[in-house]
């Protein structure tokens, strides 16, 4: 049975606030996000693909209707819906050796999704699939990505192990000229980018990391040649090894229990503990599967999205840690709020609820972890959504093993240094044979945003120049001056924890717009400057200011390691409202983006935004 939250008194809440500030200050670093290095830029070894041998091929100099950059679920969904809409000439491109995106690279032992598989793995009914467990393994998810690619014939014209190096708009042909690091130079009428959500591994910039003579790798490039075993088999080669793991976020919660079973000695280096709530994984019930009727997955996905976005539902179809805490998620995730009370009253009420939930989570640690010093170090002292919530039925139990040692690095703001043979924290050296970096990915940094993929639009204007004062889009997808370019991701739209559902809605939208453009013979798809401006105003007018909340949070990627850098903005009324708006807009004539003749880009009113103003949106939610 789930534990009950443990309420606090006003006096206890005041004490808790001081505790949170103290623990935050222990971890704040002056270098902020600069403490990390990009694996590809600083340590190419950490970014090397260990799963596929490089396949040589001749450069392409041809043409496709649609180029999709990124073959994770976003790219696959875009390809699937475009295929359903009748597009025959589709090319997937990815730096990896196959489809899957994050799930291609994340093959570490213990890896699973933390959203129900029945929600997270898309197109289950369409491909005739059913996950074997409530939370599927990474390998099962990766194989489902392959299943989607095969089902929709997306392997037909792929370019794997290939990185796009430039996108340049050709005014005469109304096409994009694409170059890559493999010498390709081809044309594409439309380009869809779906990369950057979780793609580039990041590494802590530890002094002396280059001098370490033992073995080391990043969890997203797992070296089974060194550890032995497989994602589902014991890591036998570690039986005589002293292993250190850096990081206790979502990856650490999953990989540490597996390493604890196999390593002679496991040292867990923790700067900030995660919340660890009950996961409650279990095999898929055949009787439940037999009871399902057509359309069940979409209904379940929609129900979950409504609950997390604060929208009413007739029945709760998913009962888990996420649906237990929707109001607490509003400081990070978009959605409706309770307007029956003032904002001040709502903030106070939510803070008390937050404290009660965190008290329950901390109490669970004391109940499970036998050593009181270790249990205290594992307790998260921050508000619930300061870090992405974690779930595990095995992580806390791993610290009861005699071969597992927790090293709290908070007082030193992380690992102090590395030597040829050891990891140093303060004055203490820990001799190890292997260091595994469970330090995650750069979140939301695509080549387009970072500038490693230059995009040159109409009149030779670079996209990053056009975005000099911040991203400028209509609905988050397209930008004035950059025709036929669609971006999937989190910029200027709405978010949710089940990001695959968000990507599915985005992919459906892009496919519908391209299909409409082709059916009416449009020259190109490009938003007017006025529609773009009004959408930015709408996003800013509805955006919820969470800077005060993030300023009190322990450093992490949600608040740019304590810098409180909030960029891009999201549509705060939430994904349910946003997706409804998109559907209404698609039912119209799409005149905001369809250019039917030369000179058709003008300052024109937006049919969507004119009909649904910022003030009207606020009243609806």
Estimate the global geometry from the Cα principal axes: globular
Pairing-aware structural class of the strands and helices? Answer: alpha/beta
* Total helical elements: 23
**CA-to-CA gap between the ends?**
34 Å
Characterize the biggest β-sheet: 7 strands, mixed
* Relevant CATH superfamily of the domain at 63-99 and 154-197 and 444-620: FAD/NAD(P)-binding domain
Let me know the number of strands.
Answer: 22
Q: Helical proportion?
A: 25-40%
Assign the CATH class of the domain at 63-99 and 154-197 and 444-620: Alpha Beta
CATH architecture of the domain at 63-99 and 154-197 and 444-620: 3-Layer(bba) Sandwich
Mean pLDDT level: 90
Radius of gyration: 24 Å
Q: Percent of residues in beta strands?
A: 5-15%
- Please mark out the parts with pLDDT under 50 across 5 or more consecutive residues, or reply none: 602-621
CATH topology of the domain at 63-99 and 154-197 and 444-620: FAD/NAD(P)-binding domain
Family: Belongs to the FAD-binding monooxygenase family.
Enzyme class: oxidoreductase
GO molecular function: oxidoreductase activity, acting on paired donors, with incorporation or reduction of molecular oxygen, NAD(P)H as one donor, and incorporation of one atom of oxygen
Pfam family, one: Pyr_redox_2
Task: Produce a short descriptive summary.
This protein is α/β, with parallel strands linked by helices and 621 residues long.
